[in-house]
Write a structure and sequence with these properties.
- By secondary structure, the protein is an alpha+beta fold.
- The chain folds into two domains: 306 residues, Distorted Sandwich (Beta-galactosidase, Chain A, domain 5), CATH 2.70.98.90; 216 residues, no CATH class.
- Helix content is 37%, strand content 24%.
- The protein contains twelve helices and 20 strands.
- A nine-stranded antiparallel β-sheet has the order 6-8-9-10-20-16-15-12-13, with no helix packed on it. Strands 5, 11, 14, 17, 18 and 19 form a six-stranded antiparallel β-sheet that branches.
- The N terminus is likely disordered.
């Protein structure tokens, strides 16, 4: 009985690890290959504005208001470098502690943005992450704000409108104001401000200097050309995302390929496009009715994705002004920063841009504890070790009880062998005798499963934290571990770098996976061993199997597993020594008269 339970626990653990490998790693590799082929086949696009998909009017708007934001053109007749595209148009520069870039005066587009604090690789001298790209490059990615006219014959700014700016550089505390006169009595103004992190505030005004009222819809959009390469993991959402009246909506890029746009009418919320670590999102006024939309077009074989917000119609009487304000987040998905924006700006569920998943109630607290330790110590690796100690402390009574039961099971091995030798042919009688022995000695054959089972939720949650949070990206430990979110870079099969050869992924087994395997083997030696030779061989193979499979997992997760094993070994060894001492004392005690 106890061996079947033990084997069941082992098989369950292997299945979990294999599931990770099959459902996450393999799809990721296949998607990488597909996207590489797609990128190679992508041709330059034209700056043709495709027709906007049909839509329905906003509640309360007149029948003539059945219009939509324009589908933003992106691209040029021939793709050019980013530098050439930036030099082709007059610009207002952006200079803040967290972002650098510029906005194009033609069309008032925010289409050039780099993140100061984040690099492409763990090397601090590598280029900064470029988030937004201008029209003319291969895959433009930008934000645009404007108006759609309801009143017939009214000229409104478009993607080529030559705006005028009041300053050459936009900085924190010094917003830039753009203006344009349509020659029909309307003056359009756009005021753009940025904070010290990644939040822009765009205030759009229309001043009616004419003699007739006009009606306009404000809009804001984010346009992205080309289907980006994603990680390909089922535990991570990358692509169109939004929150509408307190409900999170996530769509894949292929979801948008279906005919027609996806629309959501809402009062509160936000809409955007998320990558693994980066987010570009529109945050409209949280107290007014608006329509949010996910749209897709294909031009010249190139995919174009757009998310936009379409506001209720604004009637501007002669001599009056209409004003709307929209925020744009364009930057890194830092957990505490998104939480702060949620609290200070009242943005609904803004932290859900980080895919904490179904186990949000466990995953986010684990991150917050790790982040707290890291802020005090300055090393996420040490934070993982401290978190492991805390988790072991929380589960100490349960694990202690389990290890005591396992110690009893190990001490009962000689008695169990005698029962098998005596009743081996009579399975029913053997089972009865074994259960009687367990009952007399207070042993639990299921106890060996408990330490494995209680680790699984924590294992999943920590894996998720290491994989999705930008705080873990490029976070170093000590020695050769420069990125806890990436696998151990060393390999046994090139003698840890001494041989100039890069082993295939399956043979890429580093130092920390080997340490984890050794600790797993040591812990296994403390457990009751299966009497069946076949089961015993399978049992001995488990550390090797786990070493190979976990070698491709983030180094932080392997370090956690190895450290957890060491703590378990210490706890289990102490309990077993005490149990053996008590058993020896009991055996040496003289029998009564």
């Amino acid at each position: 009985m106890e061996q079947r339970n033990l084997i069941a626990a082992i098989v369950l653990s292997v299945l979990i690890v294999l599931a990770f490998e099959f459902f996450y790693n393999l799809p990721r590799l296949e998607r990488d290959r597909a996207h590489q082929a797609e990128r190679a086949a992508t041709q330059a696009t034209t700056d043709v504005v495709p027709p906007a998909p049909a839509t329905t009017p906003i509640p309360g708007a007149p029948p003539t208001a059945a219009v939509t934001p324009p589908a933003a053109g992106s691209g040029a007749a021939a793709a050019v470098t980013r530098e050439a595209a930036l030099a082709a148009q007059p610009r207002v520069h952006i200079d803040s502690p967290s972002v650098k870039g510029s906005l194009r005066l033609a069309g008032a587009r925010l289409d050039d943005l780099s993140l100061v604090h984040y690099r492409e690789t763990a090397d601090r001298n590598s280029p900064a992450i470029t988030l937004l790209l201008p029209t003319g490059t291969t895959n433009p990615y930008f934000a645009e704000f404007g108006w759609v006219a309801v009143t017939q014959g009214i000229a409104v700014p478009d993607s080529q409108t030559p705006w005028t700016a009041d300053r050459p550089t936009l900085t924190v505390g010094q917003p830039a104001t753009l203006w344009w006169d349509n020659g029909q009595g309307l003056r359009f103004e756009t005021r753009i401000a940025v904070d010290a992190e990644y939040m822009f505030q765009v205030t759009q005004r229309v001043v009616n200097l004419g003699t007739s009222p006009v009606q306009l819809h404000p809009y804001a959009l984010v346009s992205r050309t080309g289907t980006p390469q994603t990680s390909g993991y089922y535990i991570l959402h990358e692509g169109p995302i939004g929150v509408f009246n307190g409900r999170l909506k996530e769509y894949s890029y292929t979801d948008l390929h279906k005919p027609g746009a996806i629309e959501h009418a809402a009062t509160s919320g936000w809409i955007g496009i998320t990558d693994k670590y980066w987010l570009v999102a529109l945050v409209p006024d949280q107290n007014s009715e608006k329509k949010a939309r996910f749209a897709y077009t294909a031009t010249g074989g190139t995919d174009k994705y757009q998310v936009d917000v379409f506001g209720s119609p604004q009637t501007v009487a002669p001599g009056s002004t209409a004003e709307v304000s929209t925020r744009l987040f364009a930057g890194a998905k830092e957990v505490r920063l998104l939480d702060r924006y949620t609290e200070t700006l009242g943005i609904d569920l803004f932290d859900r841009a980080i895919d904490f998943g179904w186990f949000y109630w466990l995953t986010k607290p684990i991150f917050l504890v790790l982040d707290l330790f890291n802020r005090q110590i300055g090393n996420f690796g040490i934070a993982i070790l401290l978190l492991t100690v805390i988790i072991k402390g929380l589960f100490f009574p349960l694990a202690n009880k389990s290890y005591k039961a396992m110690s009893k099971m190990k001490l009962l091995q000689p008695e169990l062998e005698k029962l098998r030798a005596r009743f081996g042919e009579d399975r029913q009688r053997l089972s009865q005798e074994m259960m009687g022995l367990y009952k007399r000695e207070g042993a639990n054959p299921m106890a060996g499963c408990v330490p494995v089972v209680i680790q699984i939720p924590v294992f999943f949650a920590l894996y998720k934290v290491l994989f999705i949070t930008i705080e873990m990206r490029h976070a170093p430990f000590y020695g050769w571990i420069r990125d806890l979110s990436a696998p151990d870079p060393t390999s046994l099969f090139n003698l840890f770098g001494l041989i100039p050869w890069t082993p295939p992924e399956l043979l890429h087994i580093g130092v920390w996976p080997l340490i984890m395997g050794v600790t797993m083997l040591a812990q296994q030696k403390l457990n009751p061993q299966p009497p069946d030779p076949v089961q015993a061989k399978l049992f001995l193979m488990m550390p090797l199997i786990f070493t190979v499979l976990l070698a491709s997992f983030p180094a932080g997760l392997v370090i956690y597993w190895a450290w957890n094993n060491l703590l378990s070994i210490s706890q289990q060894a102490v309990i077993m020594r005490r149990a053996a001492a008590r058993a020896s004392s009991k055996a040496a005690k003289p029998a009564g008269p």
